[in-house]
Amino acid sequence: MKIQKFICLVVLAGGVSISGFGQKPYQRGIGLRISNSYYDLVSATYKFFISDAGAIDLNAGFGLRSYYDRYYVDNVKPFSLAVSAAYQHHFEIPVRGGGLAWFIGGGLTGYRVFSSRGDYDGFAFGVFPTGGVDFKIPHIPLAVSADYRPTIFLGAPSHYDSFYGGNFGVAARYTLGKK
User: Fold this and answer.
1) Is 49 in contact with 55 (CB distance < 8 Å)?
2) I need a labelling partner for 156 at 20 to 30 A (CA). Which of 18, 47, 80, 99 fits?
3) Could you tell me the CATH number of the domain that includes residue 76?
C-alpha cells in the first residue's frame, strides 16, 4: 500500500511538471549535500532542470556510521558508499528578487555497507518521497537547499534497515546556466 501511494505521488508530480508551473532559477548546479543519514552522510550533488519546474537531483557519497555504531568488531567502524537519484517538482514562492521555491518529488537510493559484522555487510536499495526548499541566491552563482527524504528500503543487509525516517539534508551548489 505504501508503494502504491508513492507511485501515485510521483505520477502526480510528473503530471504537474508537464503543465509548466513555475520558472527555473538556474539550469544546473554542482556541489555538496550533507545529511544526518547513516548511509550518505556527505554526498556530491548534481542537479539539473528538465523543464521550467522539474529537476533531477543526483547524489553520490559515503557514510561512516550505522545502526550498529556501538557494536563494531576489532574497532573497525562500518563504512558505506551510496548513490541516489530524485525527481523534484518546484513551486515558486514569490519573494523580492525571486529564486525561492519549495519542491516535492521522489527517488531511488542504493548503498553498500562495508562492515566487519557479517549480518550487516552488504547492499541495500530503497525508495523515498522528498520535499524541501531551494533558494538561488541573487547576483552570485550559488543555490542552497534543505530537504527531507524518509526512505523505505525494499532490500537491505539487515532487517533493522526497512525504514529510515530521519533523513534530513542541506546542500550548496555552484550554479551553471542562467534563468
Assistant:
1) yes
2) 47
3) 2.40.160.20
